[in-house]
Amino acid sequence: MPAHLLQEVSVSRTYTTTTTISEPSQENLQNGGEKLEKTPLASEEDIRPEMQDDIYDPSYQDAEGPKPEFQYVWRNIILMALLHVGALFGLTLVPSSKVYTLLWVVACYLFSAMGITAGAHRLWSHRTYKARLPLRLFLIVANTMAFQNDVYEWSRDHRAHHKFSETDADPHNSRRGFFFSHVGWLLVRKHPAVIEKGKTLNLSDLKAEKLVMFQRRYYKPAVLLMCFILPTLVPWYFWGETFLHSLYVATILRYTLVLNATWLVNSAAHLYGYRPYDKNIDSRENIMVSVGAVGEGFHNYHHTFPYDYSASEYRWHINFTTFFIDCMAALGLAYDRKKVSKAAVMARIKRTGDGSYKSG
Ligand code: ST9
Ligand code: ZN
Ligand code: ZN
Fold it and tell me: For ligand 1, is residue 84 a contact (CB within 6 Å)?
């Protein structure tokens, strides 16, 4: 029997589903088609049996009734507003910055991006590959430069986002609109469901990892050093950049750009784009987001197969993060990279895709 048929057989034997395969219609392409009653609870292909708490659980639904009022956190609102005003000022300083400063911005952008994508996301939240200590050290330092909460908190929120997607228990529930899923969720107290359901998640792997706990313990001083002091001092000290340019371009603007590129995955990639792998979920394939987020915009694929180390059907296609992990693997620092088979992907496209998939 061909491999892809074997996949389909094993899927239907393991999980209950009411899916029927039908020809894609124009309506499916436009509005995602009708909702299925059930989508699979666990993986399409059992390539990472040790971790299940980032797999979508459709059995959890929002409680009936009105949503609680937003409880604004004014400290965060003021700091975020100041940061963005500072970034706009930094933008005006770009033309008068030294070339080395701009190269430094690119280097810091990519370094902190790796700390989020290859580190907090694909390694620590999803365990899609394994990393030896030198790489984990590199990633935790890079992650600290990104200042997006410590890895433990980031991964806890992110597993909740996958398991309880688009419900009150999803920290950046995109059903609450673009602004809320982009940055608004960081400006208000969390919905009680985030905390209640979040407490049911298995985080034992993160609690057991000394490096992750070490970062959590020293997070504030480490962020001050890695995100603010070091990126400002380097251009000022090494190539005589003005302190103003160093602070506003290399630090404030760079930090704000990385934040917004990341947040676009939660907002734009949950609202705009096709759903070739699963039309029943809100996350979408968004090339523009992938460019800024160095490979994290293939978000319909990623929510369908969260255990794939490439977060995309492909490897190096608009995906610097996968290129980076593959380079680390070539050096022997990354190993056990999980990749969903082509047969399983094709079977899933046929079963739940919106009909927009183009092969090749
Ligand atoms: C930032 C994060 O920007 C960005 C994350 C983006 C994720 C993107 C994912 C997309 C995929 C990957 C793409 C990567 C692309 C990268 C591209 C790079 C170029 N479960 O939170 P608290 C409990 S951060 C279980 O204070 P409040 C827990 O007991 C930016 N329990 O809730 C906790 O205590 P503790 C900088 C949970 O009071 C307690 O509740 N940082 C969970 O409602 C209180 O938690 C900021 O701006 C859970 N999920 O406050 C700070 N959650 O932690 C923002 C909570 O001690 N944060 N509990 O165990 C805050 O100020 C606050 O969290 C708050 C909510 C005001 C938002
Ligand atoms: Zn994810
Ligand atoms: Zn998502």
Answer: no
